[in-house]
Amino acid sequence: MDKEIVSLLFTWYDKNARVLPWRNTKDPYAVWVSEIMLQQTRVETAIPYYERFLHTLPNVEALAVCPADKLNKLWQGLGYYRRVQNMQKAAQIMLKRYNARLPQKAKELCNLPGIGEYTSGAIASIAYGERVAAVDGNVLRVFARLMGLRDSVQDKKVILTVKSEVNALLPLTRIGDFNQALMELGATVCLPNGAPLCKECPIKAFCAATRDGLTAEIPAKPPKKEKPVQHWTVLLLQCEGKTAIQKRSENSLLASLWQFPMLAGTLAFDECKKSLPFLRNDFVQSVMPTTPCKHIFTHLQWNMTGYLVTLNSLPQNQSYLWATKEEIDQSYSIPSAFKGFMKYFGTSIYRL
């Protein structure tokens, strides 16, 4: 592929690159934080989280020793919490093995939890100037169209082909800018959804998909898979101005986060009593069904039935933490899967 692409790409990037906070630094830690946040998260959403995260946890050591609940609360709203949990594991390794610094080589970075080939390439090239590619979904899409590749960009052969082409184009200098320019082109011009902005593309003269009128067909879209559906019953247990929450197990989906008590299945309230005996006696003052909620994960869907239950007194010997709305807002991270139930924390939550 023509090396002229590099020159045209740099000219375009220098003029059109978005002003983003992580582009104002070569600090490896800050670059790492931004790259992890931008996985599965839009740029506009990530910016305030990025700034707050760095203000609260400015370096590897601070991240390594941060209490888990505080860390999850800091991440709340971004979803995919395993990202930040892996970040902490990686930070703890860096604290012990690398003097609280990120390794300088992509191959070493790849050995840390949560850092794959793309992320290691991005960090090593942007922060350290290592001559290594960083091929993400944006870059795969750009090169699939440039090269006229008709197969899915999830195909291993396509990925290897694109990586080979990107490596062949790597300039001798400004490696980080080159990788960011390709990603920027994919994010702002060679769009994933809707028609790409081909007239604005600095390298359209080299694009096979544009030449052949195939930008809508390339890259090929893999067939959508049906997500399995799980049914749950969520209990909003209220007593004395507090709500019952419990921590999810470390090996479950949404590991170590907080949730409202949940029971498997779509249950009538009388069925809930079989699992929670204290609901059978005089503890219960009132019960009201909530609006059913649905949450779609990348690999499955939750359909949730709910009940708002007011209790006369706190049950004994229950594995719940009872917290006020203010305490939950400040200290306990409840995943967005339960967002539909959070409206019951309004001004009348204890009086519905």
List the helices and strands and how they pair.
Blueprint: H1 4-16, H2 28-37, H3 43-56, H4 60-65, H5 68-75, H6 82-97, H7 106-109, H8 117-128, H9 137-147, H10 156-169, H11 175-188, H12 208-211, E1 229-239, E2 242-247, E3 258-259, E4 262-264, H13 269-275, E5 284-289, E6 293-296, E7 301-311, E8 321-323, H14 325-331, H15 339-342
Parallel strand pairs: 1-7
Antiparallel strand pairs: 1-2, 1-4, 2-3, 2-8, 5-7, 6-7
What's the gist of this structure?
With 352 residues, the protein is of the alpha+beta class. It has helices spanning 4-16, 28-37, 43-56, 60-65, 68-75, 82-97, 106-109, 117-128, 137-147, 156-169, 175-188, 208-211, 269-275, 325-331, 339-342; strands at 229-239, 242-247, 258-259, 262-264, 284-289, 293-296, 301-311, 321-323.
Q: What percent strand? A: 5-15%
Name the CATH homologous superfamily of the largest domain. Answer: Hypothetical protein, domain 2
Rg measurement, Å: 24 Å
Oligomeric state as shown: single chain
Low-confidence stretches: 346-352
Order of helices and strands: HHHHHHHHHHHHEEEEHEEEEHH
Mean pLDDT: 92
Q: Could you say how many structural domains there are in total? A: 2
- The name CATH uses for the topology of the largest domain is Endonuclease III, domain 1
Tell me the number of strands.
8
What would CATH call the class of the largest domain? Mainly Alpha
Q: What distance separates the N and C termini?
A: 66 Å
* Biggest sheet details: 8 strands, mixed
Shape designation: elongated
Classification by helices and strands: alpha+beta
